[in-house]
Amino acid sequence: MRVGATIRFLLVVLGLVGLMEPANAACTAFPYTLTNGSSADASQVMANFNYLLTCVNSASPPGGPAGGALSGTYPNPSLAAGSSSNLHEWFGTSGNFTIPVGVSSSTVFKFTIIGGGGGGGGVSNVNGAAAGGGASGQLFICAFSGFSAGQTITISYGAFGVGGSSSGGSGGVGGNTTLTYNSIVFAQAGGGSGGFGSTSGTATVMGGSPGGGSSEFTVSGTGLTLVFSAPYPTPGSAFIAPSNLGGIGVGSTTFGFSGSGGPSLFGTPGSGTLVSTGGNTYANALSPGAGGGGAASKGAGAYAGGAGNNGAVLIEWLQ
Q1: pLDDT at residue 91 greater than cutoff 60
Q2: First-to-last CA distance in the chain?
């Protein structure tokens, strides 16, 4: 192999390591010491290179700056884990995100926003009653530049839709998740609607739809520049963003089969249930933005529906 070229490449990589944060720059104990004027065996060069590769890959990636509640695990596979330039912050609760020092007005911030999931419907004490599941919160993805370091974005997650009452009530609507900058809401994802309840043992009832709230975005008065918005390119008007419908509930005289909640980008909804003897059941949504499951009964009681889950925001940027 061309050992000289490989050494030069290795030196370039070492130079890049020197630019990394101190916590990531401890790759110094190479297996072989190579000096100018001496012959280097190819196996020694590759051993040093493989050591360096392993060391850098095992270093802890930097996290986002402080600000807001960082909860759960990083759910978006679009950025390579361990990259020193791809940063993210996950907001599972409301809070403030501080624009980090070092960004410029040209730095692009991407926001993945989901509204609160709708609640599942409830059922009365009727033989074979089954309710529909709640819809997931609306999913809206957008990106802006023009933020100033040190200023804050206020994040208010959409509250979950409550489960429908045990008198056969429909599930509650999920709330809107909003992002505010310079005292202006510049992006919002609507919640999902609740699943329909049931008071009949032979009815088929609908699950929740996306239209529990509205999504929108704007740049007016914010000082921001829109980079992209998916799937809606025009700011300033409300729209219904993508959402997964809640499952339908199917009732009969021999069983009740309730609908599951609509799943979200971030995971698991409340499940539906098949009841052929005895009791109920429902399930709360397990992941942000997902819908709650509907209740079912075989005449063994009246049951409330499952709750949806709160909305959430994922912020990503390059620095």
Answers
A1: yes
A2: 37
Task: Identify which of 303, 306, 193, 313 has the alpha carbon closest to the alpha carbon of residue 259.
Answer: 306
Question: 152: which 2 tokens?
Answer: 């804050």
What is d(CA 102, CA 110) in angstroms, rounded to the nearest whole number?
Answer: 17
C-beta separation of 158 from 185 below 8 A: no
| Neighbour tally for 223: CB within 10 Å | 16
What is the residue-wise DSSP string for 64-99? PPS-S-B-S----TTS-TT-SSEEEEEESS-EEEEP
* More confident call, 31 vs 50: 31
Give the ranges where the chain is alpha helix by DSSP (H).
3-18, 42-58
- Tens-place pLDDT, residues 101-144: 888 899 999 999 999 999 999 998 888 888 999 999 999 989 99
Distances, alpha carbon 259 to alpha carbons 73, 130, 270, 292, in Å:
28, 8, 9, 9
Spatial distance between the Cα atoms of 187 and 206, rounded to a whole number of angstroms = 30
As a whole number of Å, the CA-based R_g of the chain is: 26
Top pLDDT among 68 and 162 is at: 162
What integer is the mean pLDDT of 173-187?
A: 95
How far is C-alpha 125 from the chain's CA centre? 37
Is 256:249 a contact under the CB 8 Å cutoff? Answer: yes
pTM over 0.90: no
| DSSP per-residue string spanning 122-134 | PB-S-EEEE-PPP
User: Which residue type is seen at 315?
Assistant: I
